Each structure stands twice: as structure tokens, then as C-alpha cells.
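Predict structure. Chain length: 328.
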Amino acid sequence: MDSIQDRFFRLNNALAEQIIGQEQLLERLLIALLADGHLLVEGAPGLAKTRAIRQLGRHLEGSFHRIQFTPDLLPADLTGTDVFRPQNGSFAFQQGPLFHNLVLADEINRAPAKVQSALLEAMAERQITVGQQTYRLADPFLVMATQNPIEQGGTYPLPEAQLDRFLLHVRIDYPAAETERQILALARAEAAVEMERTDKSAPVMVPERLSVNELQQARKQVLELHLAANLEEYLLQLVLATRAPGSYGEDLTGLVLYGASPRASIALDRCARARAWLQGRDYVCPEDIQLLAFDILRHRVLLSYEAEAAGMTVDRLVGELIARVPVP
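Prediction complete.
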């Protein structure tokens, strides 16, 4: 009988066959799933963001829903609302799209602040309140929000305090030329299969699905994974360094207005364990912490105006801190 870890290895391989050239995005998706958090993905259109989470939904026991965020969206369009029934003069709650296991919030920065707040509150509390009633959301519940970095007109940037609700902020880029050739071949093969399906009512083959119980077992194993005391101290020092980077060099003094909160330490701890588990190890190594530090700290550190004027970025700062904080 396959172990839970083997099931995740197969899930990762199945996703990699369908999503070519976005290995980092797939790994971060699985890490967010194991760490019970949400992720914000930033990248140009057409880089398989929607396809990635849709394919993940096909391999999980549960439901998937995509929400296209637009300026005219209302909070009730996400949470649901009480609907009046004239037959008996009563109100009945009609669930919104947040009552699904996997939710894609496409172009989240195109919706106004009230809608963003409704989503982020649901993400943090795992529940929504309509009128005097509170409703629990599905378990598991994972939100993948996307941002288009190309267009900024008519958008509503997420405040830094709300960005902190996301476990990871992932940036993806264009694939290499050889990878894009593989994408073309896969697209042609899928188009050919679709054209050969003359009977459109024929049942579509459902892939092997990971059950909710198996996911809970995997999460338990991740939490129990070994993290050495000296590595835990290294993790903490890395996060603390974002609050006082000047301690690691005068050239870093005055670069940061606000460093990462304790939520970053918790996120880095859980994500490092999840990555080690996905790699087939029963212990965390420094590489797990260093590779994930960018995605965990990118949206949690606010640079000073002087740093931004000098061309400094959070990624550059994190890279400097990783190079300077002593590794045990």
C-alpha cells in the first residue's frame, strides 16, 4: 500500500505532466496545501496560473471555483446572501463561490477594497458572517489569488497589512524556449484528443483523487517533521534581520520601514517543513529556509522611500540577508 508521501509524489508528477515549465508554482501550491495557507501569484497572462490550480482541483477530493474580480464586484458576490422566498415569507441563505475547497481569485487587484476585505477575512477566519448568522467554510480551503503586473490602471493595490494574510507571494516568469516547445506539443496533443471525442456526452475520465483524510494525515506528518534547534534559531534570526538589517552591515541601515511580523516566522517554519516533506526528507535543511524566504518575506517587508529611490527591492534585501546571516 502506498504511503501518504508516495501519493503526493504521484500528485506532483501528474501535475508536472500537465503544467510544463512552472515547477516552482506547482511546488508552492502543494506547500500551501500542506501548510494550510493561501498564496498570491504574480505573473503575466498566459503563464498557466489558472490551469495549475484547476488541475490541482481535478486531483483533490473537493470542489474548485474561479472568480473573475472586476470593479463592479460586491462582497455578497463572494460570500453569498440571504434570498427572500415569497412562497412562505422567509429568507434562505444562498452560498457564494467561497464555499468551495479551492478558489481562484483571478486579478484580485481589480476589485475594490470592500471585496478584497471580504475575501481576506474569509481566508483568515475560515468563516463568513451574513446578517446574524456565521457560516463555516469548507475544509480544506485554499485561495490562490493572482495579480497582473502589466496593467496598473483601474486597479486597487492590496494594502501591506492585508497582503500579510497570504502565506506565500510567488512570482513566475516566461518559460525557456525548449520548455515552450514542449508546451506547444502538449497543446496540440490535447486539441487532437478533444477533436477525437465525437461523443461529447461521454464521461470524462476522472484522475486518482487525494482524499481529505489523506491530506489531513499529510499535514500531521509535516507538523511532526524534525526541525533542529539551531535551524529554528537561524529561521528566527533571518526574520528578525528584516526588522533591523543594519545589524548586518551599515549599507543596510535605513532600508526598512517595517520588517516581517511573527506571522512570517510561523509561515517560514511550516513551509520549510512542507518542502522538506515533499522532497522525501524527514528533516529540514538550510536550503528549505533560504529558498522559501523570498516568497514568504516578499510581501511582508516595507522598504523606506530612500531604499526604493535607490533601486532597492525586497528580493535584493532578502538575498543580502541570506548571504550575511550565519548559517548553522
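Summary: The mean pLDDT is 89.
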